[in-house]
Amino acid sequence: DAKTTQPNSMESNEEEPVHLPCNHSTISGTDYIHWYRQLPSQGPEYVIHGLTSNVNNRMASLAIAEDRKSSTLILHRATLRDAAVYYCILRVGNAGNMLTFGGGTRLMVKP
Amino acid sequence: DTGVSQDPRHKITKRGQNVTFRCDPISEHNRLYWYRQTLGQGPEFLTYFQNEAQLEKSRLLSDRFSAERPKGSFSTLEIQRTEQGDSAMYLCASRAGTATNYGYTFGSGTRLTVV
Questions:
Q1: Which residues of A touch B55 (CB under 8 A)?
Q2: CB contact under 8 A, A46 and B105
Q3: Which of A47, A51, A93, B89: CA 20 to 30 A from B100?
Q4: How far is B82 from chain A, CA to nearest CA, in Å?
Q5: Which residues 41-80 in chain A show a CB within 8 A of chain B?
Q6: B33 in contact with A at a CB cutoff of 8 Å?
Q7: Rounded to an integer, what distance in angstroms lies between the CA atom of residue A102 and that of residue A110?
Q8: Long-range contacts of A61-65 (CB under 8 A, 24+ apart)
Q9: Tens digits of residue pLDDT in A36-72
């Protein structure tokens, strides 16, 4: 799987928007962009995924650059429960069965 | 459906002992995955089942590790002759094997401590 690059950590204030960046300059045309998050003492949790177009769901929004070499996960109003490690992962189409996790971004939310 | 269940949540064992973990996936999910996660790192892939067939194994899965998924339902991961380096969180995930890119559902993991 192609590699992703994320900042090690970010801080946010509660109730403010958070933009978590991810670079994936070697992405190929069939790679989907997945985001997972892992809360303390829990397994990773699916957040959102996309291919080319921006995506919205109840948890977050995913903004994908036009050249697809970067993407941004947007939490519209951070809460203390959003404090977690956020992983940006590329996965090949319908093949490539496993997810390859990097180090992720540790998001800290201040009250 | 309560999601992916893993048992036990915690296991402390002495070096050299054998341990077995169990994973119960979401019932309609035919694909099941095992991952290992050490402190401060992202999860690392260990192995993958489609129904009862073990289709992929990582080089991390040494010959002391064995995984099974009889009848394509629950799965077990056994570690023989445990070593201190085996101390980690062992995560199980499942997903439906459909054509679209649905997300994986992870369990809360089994934390293994080898003393």
A1: 97
A2: yes
A3: B89
A4: 23
A5: 41-46, 49
A6: yes
A7: 25
A8: A62/A33, A62/A35, A64/A33
A9: 999 998 999 999 999 999 999 999 999 999 999 999 9
Which of helix, strand or coil describes residue A81?
helix
Its sign, for the CA torsion B10, B15, B17, B20, is: positive
Per-residue CA distances from A104 to A1, A22, B31, B92 (Å): 16, 9, 25, 19
pLDDT per residue as tens digits for the range A23-40:
999 898 888 899 999 999
Classify each residue of B68-96 as buried b or exposed e, where b means 16 or more C-beta atoms within 10 Å of its C-beta: ebeebebbebebeebeeebbbbbbbbbbe
Strand B65-68 versus strand B10-13 pairing type: unpaired
Residue with the two structure tokens 């960046």: A21
